[in-house]
Write a structure and sequence with these properties.
It is built from twelve helices and six strands. It is mostly helical and 319 residues long. The protein has one domain. A hairpin with a 2-residue loop joins strand 1 and strand 2. The radius of gyration is 19 Å and the shape is globular. The protein starts with a helix and ends in a 5-residue tail after the last strand. Bound molecules: zinc ion. The site of zinc ion (ZN) has 8 residues, from helix 8.
């Protein structure tokens, strides 16, 4: 690089460091809490015991860790590195090749975009949450498929990744390989769960990265984590919102994979509390109720969906 580019990179780095593309929910605390809650509330324990033959279910240790911890690890690591999170947004009112986050155009937002571009997370390769997770650019199973980077550093760890590891886990001939692939399967599903959890964050379903650039508090040496969304900060500091969440199953009939995010029923003019909506649609329709949370201390909504994945639990009383 010549000196000009080096200087520009340093400036971009300094601008970008105080912020991040945001986990939606806090990666180290809230995503782990939601993921573990979803595992506990779901049918996964029964599936592991009865279908795969893992006698202790999600409490079984596989490749050195309990299965539930592998899920939880994936739930945290989907935000690592932080520029990966630029693929964690989906506005269900837009075409899926346009529904990704694109409002990083403020001075700070532009600095972060440039910083991520420099690291190889180029804006032109950005995907929506639903596409990043499922590979589809339109509803599955017949929708068009996206192409991703072939460089593993910039490739999603998504549903297809989990399926590939799962096949290897079931077909590997050595015990060690089976264990390693089962662990990778559970961790990959944890990444998928993180992405679906993000669809419960209103800012992530209406192209609102800007609301993540608010100073919250000085806490620890990772000073870029002092900034974020007021809503996410509120949820992080009230863990009982997650621990006391009550499962409400969806009412899908033969759902496709992408339906968990977006069933293409909601067009902005037909709000509904139907449990046949995808989570991004449900969260988007509550825009007005959530608006207060994004901008200030006061939490104004009466319910929010936390996760639609596996347990499909949601609707946590906030006030
Ligand atoms: Zn995220």
């Amino acid at each position: 690089m010549n000196n000009t580019i080096i200087k520009l990179s340093i400036i971009c780095f300094i601008i970008a460091m105080p912020f991040s593309y945001s986990s939606a929910y806090d990666d180290e605390i809230t995503h782990r809490e939601i993921t573990e809650k979803a595992v506990v509330e779901s049918q996964i324990d029964t599936f592991l015991k009865n279908t795969i033959g893992i006698s202790n279910g999600y409490k079984e240790k596989v490749n050195g860790k309990k299965i539930i911890q592998w899920f939880s690890d994936g739930g945290e690591l989907e935000d690592d590195p932080m520029c990966r999170a630029s693929n964690h947004f989906h506005d269900p009112l837009k075409l899926w090749n346009q529904s990704f986050m694109s409002d990083d155009t403020t001075i700070m937002g532009s600095g972060i975009r440039q910083y991520c571009n420099e690291l190889g997370w180029n804006y032109v390769n950005r995907k929506s949450n639903v596409t990043w997770t499922t590979g589809f650019l339109a509803p599955s199973p017949d929708g068009a498929r996206a192409t991703f980077s072939t460089d593993p550093e910039y490739t999603p760890i998504n549903w297809d990744t989990a399926r590939a590891y799962y096949l290897n886990a079931l077909t590997s001939t050595s015990e060690a390989d089976r264990e390693a692939n089962f662990a990778a399967t559970f961790k990959s599903v944890g990444h998928v769960m993180h992405l679906l959890e993000d669809a419960a964050q209103p800012a992530h379903v209406r192209n609102d990265f800007t609301s993540h650039l608010v100073f919250q508090e000085i806490n620890g040496f990772k000073f870029w984590k002092w900034y974020g969304s007021s809503y996410e900060h509120y949820v992080k500091n009230l863990p009982t919102l997650v621990t006391s969440a009550v499962p409400i199953p969806p009412e899908f009939v033969n759902p496709g994979l992408t339906d968990f995010w977006d069933t293409e029923q909601y067009d902005g003019s037909n709000p509904s509390a139907s449990l046949t909506l995808g989570l991004a649609e449900y969260s988007n329709k509550q825009e007005s109720e959530f608006r207060g949370q994004e901008s200030g201390e006061q939490i104004g909504c009466d319910q929010m969906h936390i996760s639609h994945m596996i347990a499909q639990f949601e609707c946590v009383e906030i006030i």
